[in-house]
Amino acid sequence: MTKADQPTALDLPMADPLPPETQKYFDICQDKLGMVPNVLRAYASNVEKLNAFTAMYNDLMLGDSKLSKLEREMIAVVVSSINKCFYCLVAHGAAVRQLSGDPQLGEMLVMNYRVAPLDARQRAMLDFAAKLTRASAEVEEADREALREVGFDDRDIWDIANVAGFFNMTNRVASASAMVPNPDYHGQCR
Fold this sequence. Notes:
Blueprint (H helix, E strand, L loop, with lengths): L19 H14 L4 H6 L3 H16 L6 H15 L2 H15 L2 H9 L8 H16 L5 H9 L4 H23 L14
């Protein structure tokens, strides 16, 4: 495949100039991550939508929850794997590698979480996220009970569902817009 044949993201210009608070957020990303993630650049074409996106992301992925950051990233990767979202698999696969300290775990989750050495709690969580992604209308009380049996409470189930739901949405936006991950993600934590 030639470079001209490779898919590119929609060409959405960022607001110009960026509002000072948005520029400050991008500067923080640059300092902490060494880049501004392309998803944020795409959303910056509409600052109100960027603010809504980042508020939801930050709440679900960084906010108060008994789910660890790693568990939330694991959900993101499994959902993105089912949806074949190139952007999220690369970006959140890197986060799993970083948070777990295990590059092999990150790759296993990207390819097929069922081959990963998961404990019963993690397996139940990812099975639930996978079912919610593939057939949300088929989720039943038995599925929630399976989570309770491994120690999740109803708030945890709510958090699992919200993280899975968020990534189902963002996967579709990334795929529809041919969003490509920042090249920096590919080599992180290997």
